[in-house]
Amino acid sequence: MIEPIGNQYVVARPVYSTKAFEEEHKKKHRHHKTLLDHLKKWFRCSAQKAKRIALSLFPIASWLPAYRIKEWLLSDIVSGISTGLVAVLQGLAFALLVTIPPSYGLYAAFFPVIIYFFLGTSRHISVGPFPVLSMMVGAVVVRLTPIADTADPTVTNSSVANDSSLDDHKVMVAATVTILSGIIQLLMGVLQLGFVVIYLSESLISGFTTAAAVHVLVSQLKFILQLTVPAHADPFSIFKVLISIFSQIEKTNIADLVTSLVILLVVFVVKEINQHYKAKLPVPIPIELIMTVIATGVSYGFDFKNRFNVAVTFRDTIGDCFGIAIVGFAVAFSVASVYSLKYDYPIDGNQELIALGVSNIFGGSFRGFAASTALSRSGVQESTGGKTQVAGLLSAVIVLIVILAIGFLLEPLQKSVLAALALGNLKGMLMQFTEIRRLWRKDKYDCLIWVMTFIFAVVLGLGLGLAASVALQLLTIVFRTQFPKCSTLANVGRSNIYKNRKDYSEMYEPDGVKIFRCPSPIYFANISFFKQKLIDAVSPLRILRKRNKALKKIRKLQKKGLLQVTLKGYICTVDGFKDSDEELDNDNTEELDQPINTTDLPFQIDWNADLPFNIMVPKINLHSLILDFSAVSFLDISSMRGLKMILQEFIRIQVDVYIVGTDDDFTEKLARCEFFDDEVKDSIFFLTIHDAVLHILMKKDYSTSKFNPSQEKEAKFDFTINTNGALRNRECQTLGQNTFKNSEASSSTLQKVQHLFEPLCLIPTKLKQ
């Protein structure tokens, strides 16, 4: 019964062990589905299931019929035009990251959008080139491009037209990688593996994208400075590129450098204005478009191409493609999740995999490269009023117009301008360095993941860096569970609340009771650590062996008649009994590890009392151990064996062990694995720490009372929480006047019982006789 009183409550219920609770409250039988049941459900066919599958594969069938033309169409048109202009420029700029001619970036900005319009579940993301993915594809292209051709002095960045065969090879590699990545994404979606993105944490993605931004920055320096830089794709390649750039810095094309710096400065300033006044501006200022038009006109009008010689516009790749597929999906899904929460509509991770996979297969077939979503482009689509993917479709129409009608107008555009525009879109990623300070204050492990992910991706390259970062992240999880912060608990506030005894000043610990908490799963990697932490104060195996050795000595003394037992204790009839310590030390270890058996002796041994002459055994003041497993979600077979050995060691030195806070699945698994036997019984499980503490106090106290066995069996104790947070007895006078009177308890026994319970105000409310 629970009685609320203001912001406090009063509870009256029996002390429950898990077994007693299950006996009193019968559990309902639940049928747990087997693998066969899931397979039957998966392959079962019905009209409703077919309709549901069709709607899930083509989400457009769900939202397009409900499209509000009058309310949404104008907003989508404005958003589509703005997003399309940005997509054109980003497609051209990010193609340089793939090391292919810029025109192919328009294909990557067009075809994936068309497919996503029909298959995607997000209404706000803009699918197309993403700088990190472009950089990862570019790394594969560089690695698979013939070294001799790449280093050929006739193939330079300042050439008006690159060698067609080399360009065709690069485009083919980029398209092949894109198609293979799309196939991987499609298979993952069909197999319902969208959950794989959970292994890429926010810290890892942030550190990885920041490192990718650094790679992009370094890769674009050769276009800004217009230098001939050999391609490098192995680990430490970023440092080799920097060495190559600085070794020929005197060959910089001043026209390209000045143009790039001016554009970078203007783009950064205008983007800050857009960010600062985004609430007042109806649409962001399309600075990329403005600068592209100006730069193209200036380059054409002043004939930069001729006057300043400026530049104008398979092996094993499964691992690279898998990394591209995962990163592309992770970025797109994380951005889509933000907008789905903001506008309250559902998204499906598996369907997103299918949509992105088909988009990349389709785009790669038309010689595009890997697509995901760019944060800046999606932000433009959402901030300019985009409501649905109709805006995305209209942005694809803008790209198509550029491809078919006005693409020739961009021929005078310098590569350094596109490089500057690409760097201008990295501002948000490079600003992620500020995350280090925030993560250091909040979580040291997440900060370590961010820093190491950045270092791995910069030093080892994006592919190997991603793999190493995921491995490090999983290793930190193992490390946290392998070395959990175990603690010893005590009572706080004289109530049913138990906290770390090091954290509070006014704590109460029942004599002889130790409460130990493990805050993580217990498995093969941390069972040794768990055992070591548990036996730091008491080494049960050592004490058990000492007691068994002492028992052998006592048996010898008793058989020889040298030891007598009186009411006052032991009497040794010889002054100097010496046994062969060497003989005892050479005893079989397995024999010393067995439970102590004193049934053959005519007396009982109190191991905490003074033993006969020459017999020393460590004394312990612990009689009960409570293990708080409320945070232990599972045990494996190896840790189960280790846990049972630990329990047996404590039980054999007469320390009662109780386990509290476990769920039903936990105990059921132990029963299935034959964990319980004559020593370790299922009665050691209790619902809460407080139940176990009350049980111990009653057991240790009333085992010495003057109840007869039938009275002890019928005794039932109820406790109630007082309104001040403490535990009180509602019938204290009845307890003192009737119970102990009927039991013929002496006044000293009554005082002893009351003294035992008073520190916690734990007094039984009723003793049935």
The gross shape turns out to be elongated
Q: What is the strand content? A: 5-15%
Gyration radius (Cα, Å) is 38 Å
- Major sheet: size, sense and barrel closure? 7 strands, mixed
Q: Kindly report the average pLDDT value.
A: 77
- Which spans of ≥5 residues are poorly predicted at pLDDT below 50? 148-162, 702-769
**Fraction in helix:** 55-70%
Structural class: alpha+beta
Q: So how many helices?
A: 33
What is the β-strand count? 15
Distance between the termini: 24 Å
What does this structure look like?
With 769 residues, the protein is α+β, with helices and mostly antiparallel strands. Among the domains are: 69-147 and 163-241 and 309-476, no CATH class; 487-538 and 621-704, STAS domain (Transcription Regulator spoIIAA, 2-Layer Sandwich). 56% of the residues lie in helices and 8% in strands. The strands form four sheets. Strands 5, 6, 7, 8, 11, 12 and 13 form a seven-stranded mixed beta sheet that branches. Strands 1-2-14-15 form a four-stranded antiparallel beta sheet, with no helix packed on it. The longest helix has 29 residues, at 69-97. The chain starts with a strand and ends in a 12-residue tail after the last helix. The model is unreliable at 148-162 and 702-769 (pLDDT under 50). Its main location: membrane.
